[in-house]
Every structure is written in C-alpha cells, then in structure tokens.
Amino acid sequence: MAKDYYEILGVAKEASPEEIKKAYRKKAHQHHPDKTGGDEAKFKELNEAYQVLGNADKRKQYDQFGATFEQAGTGGGFRWEDFSQGGFGDFSAKGGPASGWDFGDIGDIFGDIFGAGRSSRARSRRVTRGQDIEMELEVEFREAVFGAEKTVELYKTVACDKCDGIGAEPGSKITTCATCHGSGQIDQVQRTILGQIRSRTICPDCQGVGKTYAKKCSRCRGIGVVKDTQKIKVKIPAGIDNGQTIRLSGEGEAGPKGGSSGDLFISIRVRPDSEFRRDGGNILSQAEISFAQAALGDKIRVNTLEGEGYLKVPAGTASGKIFKLSGKGVPYLQSRGRGDQLVEVIVKIPQHLSREQKKLIEKLGELE
Question: Does an H or E element contain 123, and which?
Fold first, then answer.
C-alpha cells in the first residue's frame, strides 16, 4: 500500500509550505534516533514525506499521481540518492562539492536536531537545563474560587551552596578548557541520509561550561547541584478550576554546572464543598422553603460564598424552580467579572400532618 505523506506528517492536503515545515520539525525532533524514545524507522519515514511535500514540484507530482507517485514521471520514481547527492529540487548543491552542500530548510532542521550553526548555543542550554517537576496540590473550594497563597515543600535538585553551582572547589584554579577553547562546544562531521552535515555538540571534557578546574567541589563532587528540601510559595489565582495547572518558571530541578532550572507544574485538585457545587463560572446551591412560602411567596435567606443573602420567592413557586443571584459566582480566571449563583428551590412537604392541617390543605385543593 502506498504511503500517505500527508498523514505521516499529520497535516491536511491543503496545508501551506510553512505548516508542512513546522509539522516536520516537530516530529523530526520527537523521533530522532539520538533522542530518548527516538524511532529510526519513523524518522526515515518523516524525512521521506518531507522530501516530497516540502518541494513544490515533487508535491505537485505526488498530488497528481497519488498512489502511483513512486512509479511516475522520472523513470523509476523517487530515489534517496536524488536527495542525498544534492539534486532534489530546491536542495541542490551550490557551487559543487568543493564549496559544500546547501540543504536549505532541511539543513536548518537538521541543524536544530544536531546542534549545528545558529542553534548550537540553544542546544547547549537545553542539554544542561534542569528537569521539570510535576506535582499535585489540593486546595479548599473557597481557595479555588477566591484565590490563596500556599507553601509547598519539595525535595529536589538545587544549586550547590558551596560552589554556587559552578562545580569547582572554592579557591581552586579555574582555566579555559583546552579541548573547546572556552566555547563549550566542539565541531563534528556526521554522515546522514543527506550526506555529510557539520554539527556542534557539547564538549565532553567541560560539559559545555568552557572552563576546567583543578579541584572539584567537595560538596557536589563537581556537578554543581545537590539534593535539598526547599519551600516554595504558590499563588493560587482566583477562579482556578479542578484539574487546571499552574506553571512556576525556574522552580524545577536546578541544571548542572550553572545550567538553567526546569519549571514546576502544579496540578490543582479542588476539595468538594458540602453545600456548593461549581459549573464553570457558576455556583450551584439549594434552598428549602415551606409549602406555605411556595404558595404565598416570601423573601428568604440563602447562603452564598460570601455569607448570607436574600432571595425573593414569588407566590406559586414550584419545587425545582431555579433562581439567579447575579455576580455571586466564580471570578473569571483570565478576564474581569464573575459568574452567578443558581439557587434551586426545594419545597419541603411535611411528613406528618395534624388533622387541622389536613383540613386546611383539603380546602386549598377545593379552590383549584
């Protein structure tokens, strides 16, 4: 069965070249064999799909011939050699082999993956960045509605307080790394399906720091980080709902040797309330009224999240009728204003009636 290149990249048939390029970048990063959980077969399949859909002429040919694309047009169809030798549409070599290859978008994409060119510094930061932390935090119903400040305690990786995260023993001699000459990176040439690609990787001797030192820190053993307990203040925004997540930038695990810290992701779990329920921005509650109040009408007291309020019940109110208290609901999380409180009125029917009460009800029935 012929491959569906659009499906492989996860884009629609009418997708723009920029959308196709963006989809390829994302999936190529995800499935690259050098990454944890990478898939070499899937990676090659993605490259094959992008080589076709990323080139206007090849894409047009593929759209025209569909399932017979591989047998159409070029007397043998699509070949990996056409691409790897630099003869594939816009990705052709400029100036011949002596001046090096120019792979256009593909070169940029593989530069991102292998750490080449302009992306090398960003890749260095990604490698030394600390891990993110995920945790769950339970809050009270009213804390979620009105907001609160909580303190969480985490046992995590933090910068070493003895060497300030550098990894060197205080007072020891620090010199420029002889391998990378202080850049923290070394150049490499890798053979890929595209031919030879020059890339940059983190220096194995200084781990991207660019410095070496005579003696490692005795507390962190040169890593720059240690495990410790840390208290972190968390601001719970008013209106947050059950299952939503708060992100605290830089509050995750510290990166080794001065690397940036990861982020802390806190999933909020709201403890149910015995009296109130939530439906989006609205608060749901119930209020009981007597048979007489339902028949004759009354002004009753009802509980709100902010204390007691009043509700006017008109004569002839049926059980289950819902009334609205405007602005007594949940503050909107990312905008101004609040939802409403919806009060369901329940008519309480007496369980045991006296003889006199029964006669009165019978008389009421005769009036209908």
Answer: helix 120-128
